[in-house]
Amino acid sequence: xxxxxxxxxxxxxAFALLQxxxxxxxxxxxxxxxxxxxxxxLQMWRISRGLASLMILLGFLLGVGLxxxxxxxxxxxxxxxxxxxxxxxxxxxxxxxxxxx
Length: 101
Hints:
Blueprint: H1 2-17, H2 19-44, H3 49-86, H4 88-93, H5 95-98
Helix pairs in contact: 2-3
């Protein structure tokens, strides 16, 4: 019993130390697990597994990229507006440059 407790403690410590390395693999496993049924469905429509995987992967990456873009653009825009409002001195000295902002 004490042996298995020691093995468990060593495994928990190993996972804690390797968490930064193992997390991308765990995320990839979860993504692949949820996207596999879509690939199987495309295979039933007589599309090769490689092409189906490519189509699903590109669609997934496009969706994630679109979500990131839609979330980041308003944040960056707000930060730029606050930065320009915080430093009005250069705007007054060069009114032609900042008129387009």
